Amino acid sequence: MAFASGLANTSLKYNSVGFYQMAKIAVTPTIVLAEFVVFRKTISFKKVLALVVVSAGVAVATVTDLEFSAFGACIAIAWIIPSAINKILWSNLQQQANWTALALMWKTTPITICFLVALMPWLDPPGLLLFKWDINNASAILVSALLGFLLQWSGALALGATSATSHVVLGQFKTCVILVGGYLLLGSDPGPVSLSGAVVALAGMSAYTLLNLKESKESSNKQIPMQDPVSKTKTSENGNEGSTVTNTTNEV
User: What is the protein's major site of localization (predicted)?
Assistant: First the structure.
C-alpha cells in the first residue's frame, strides 16, 4: 500500500498524465499474470478479449501525450507491480480470510503510515515545515484526507465484492464516464478520437460485466444440489409413517 500510493504520486510528478494512464493500463495484465502465478487462477478467452478491448479503448481515449523522463519511467514501471499485488491481496484477504474492509484498513493503515514516513524523504523533497499552514490550507488537507479515506474504503468494498481485475476495470469505467459525461453535460470537446476510444472501452466493459454475471450464475446453479427422486420418495414415506404414529398416539 505504501509503495502503491507513494510511487503513484511520484509518477504523476515526473511524468505526464498520458504516460501515467499507460502505466495504469499495464496493471490489468499484471494482475492476470500475478493471480495465475500465485493462485493458479485463470480467466476465459472471452474475458481476455474483453479486457484487450477495454485497455485499447482507454488508451485511445486518455493517452494524449507521452512526456516522461528516464527517472519518471522507472518510477512508473516500479509502481505497476506493487499496485497489482496490493489489489490482489486486498481482494483475497476479504474473500478467502473473511476480513471486512474496515477491519483490514484498521490493521494495515498504521503500518502503511510508518512505511510512508520512511519513504517521504526519498519520494518527496523535504518542506513540511516550509508549507504555509493557515486555516484554508489546513481545511483543504483535512477534506482531502476525508475524501481519501472514503475512496480507500469504497475501493476496499469493491475489491471484497468483486476481484482485483474488476476493480481496475471499474476505475477505467470512471475515467470513460467522466470523459463522455463532460462532453454530453458540460460541453467539453475532447475530440472524436478520444470519444471513440471511450465508447469502445465502455462496450468492452459491458461485455466483461456480462461474462462475469454469466459465470456467477453458472457457478451458483452448480452449487444447488439436485434432490434424488428416490430420496424424495423415501422422505415422503417417512413423513407418512411419522404422521401415522402421531395419529395413533393421539388416539391412545
Answer: membrane
Written as nine digits, the cell of 73 is: 519511467
Question: What is the C-alpha separation between 39 and 31, in angstroms, rounded?
Answer: 11
> What is d(CA 45, CA 28) in angstroms, rounded to the nearest whole number?
15
pLDDT tens for residues 178-193?
778 877 887 777 778 8
**pLDDT (0 to 100) of residue 165:** 83
Segments of the chain assigned E as strands: none
Q: What's at 103, amino acid-wise?
A: A
C-alpha cell at 183: 462532453
Q: Which amino acid is at 11?
A: S
Task: With both helix axes pointing from N to C terminus, report the angle between 164-185 and 135-161 in degrees, rounded to the nearest 10.
Answer: 120
Distance of alpha carbon 170 from alpha carbon 91, whole angstroms: 14
- The radius of gyration of the chain's CA atoms, rounded to the nearest angstrom, is 26
Long-range Cβ pairs for the range 45-51 (8 Å, 24+): 46/207, 46/211, 47/208, 47/211, 47/212, 50/204, 50/205, 50/207, 50/208, 50/211, 51/165, 51/169, 51/204, 51/208
- The yes-or-no verdict on residue 233 having pLDDT over 50 is no
Task: State how far the Cα of 72 lies from the Cα of 84, in Å rounded to an integer.
Answer: 19
Q: Is pLDDT at 14 greater than 70 in this prediction?
A: yes
Q: How far apart are CA 252 and CA 242, in angstroms?
A: 16
What one-letter code names the amino acid at 130? L
Query: How many helices (DSSP H) and strands (DSSP E) are in the chain?
Result: 9, 0
Average pLDDT on 162-190 reads 80
